Amino acid sequence: MDMDITFPGGKRVDASIAGQTLKTDQSPQSGGTGTAPEPYLLFLASMGTCAGIYVLGFCQSRGLPTEGMKLTQHMEWDQATHRLTRVHLDIHLPEGFPEKYKDAVIRAADQCAVKRTIQDPPEFVVRTV
C-alpha cells in the first residue's frame, strides 16, 4: 500500500491514500495558515478515533445504545523532553448502559490498530529515490 505526500504550498502537506486526501498545515505561530490540523494533531486524533471505531462497532454489533457516548483522550507530556508519555482514554457511556458490557467495551477499545502499532512499532526506512 502506498501513500503519496505532496506539498500544495506554504506549510501545507497533504497525504493521499485509498482515494482520500488528508490535509495538514502548520499553525500561524509555526509559519502556516492554520487551515488544517498539524500532522502531530492528526496522529493524536488517530489514537482516539481508532479506539472509538472499535467501541462503536462493539456496541452496534450488539444493539447497545451509543447516543451520548463519547471518548475523552487526555495526554500527559514530559515537560523536559516534550515527549508524549501517557495517553488516557475515558469512555463515557450513555445512561443505562448495561453493566455486563462495561469491561467488554474497554477490551474493544484496547483492540485499536493504531495503539497496537505504537506498542509494536514498524521499522522506518527513509531514503531518497
Keywords:
single chain, alpha+beta, GMP Synthetase, Chain A, domain 3, 2 domains, three-stranded antiparallel sheet, two-stranded antiparallel ribbon, 3 helices
Short description:
This protein has helices at residues 39-62, 102-110, 113-119, and strands spanning 4-9, 12-17, 20-24, 70-78, 83-92. The chain has 129 residues and is α+β, with helices and mostly antiparallel strands.
Helix content: 25-40%
Specify the structural class: alpha+beta
> What's the SSE pattern?
EEEHEEHH
Distance between the termini: 18 Å
> What is the fold-level CATH name, i.e. the topology of the largest domain?
GMP Synthetase, Chain A, domain 3
Number of contiguous helices = 3
- Rg is 18 Å
Largest sheet: 3 strands, antiparallel
Low-confidence stretches: none
From the spread of the alpha carbons, the general shape counts as elongated
Give the strand tally: 5
Strand line-up across the major sheet: 1-2-3
